[in-house]
Design goal:
single chain, six-stranded mixed beta sheet, alpha/beta, about 30% strand, about 25% helix
Length: about 110
């Protein structure tokens, strides 16, 4: 499974649509280990583009601080699970916490 996180300054970016990069992790769901990692520069922000772009890369889960309702809906249309309310931190640590069921989330910090 591939998990993507929006990243700025090497930490989870709270606003999904305005990140510098995306870290995409390959994970083994059975062993709960990260098996690969790739970094992609974010394309220019354009409503509706990022969910399709990430789905085309095979992403099945996105962990973000905040995300607009339109992006959430497009992800769901493409079979991608969305987790919002994650706090800034090192991306691999966030993915490990998610895999181990320890990821603490709050409210979606995006208001649109």
């Amino acid at each position: 499974m591939k998990i993507a996180l929006p990243v700025s300054d090497k930490k989870l970016c709270l606003h999904f649509g305005h990140c510098e990069q995306f870290e995409v992790f390959d994970v083994d769901e059975k062993t709960k280990h990260i098996t690969g990692r790739a970094t992609f520069s974010a394309p220019p922000h354009e409503p509706g583009l990022l969910p399709r772009w990430l789905a085309d890369k095979g992403v099945k889960c996105v962990i973000a601080g905040g995300m607009g309702s339109r992006a959430v809906a497009i992800f769901k249309e493409n079979g991608v699970n969305v987790i919002t309310g994650a706090q800034p931190g090192e991306p691999a640590a966030i993915v490990r916490d998610y895999l181990e069921g320890r990821l603490v989330t709050g409210s979606n910090v995006c208001d649109h």
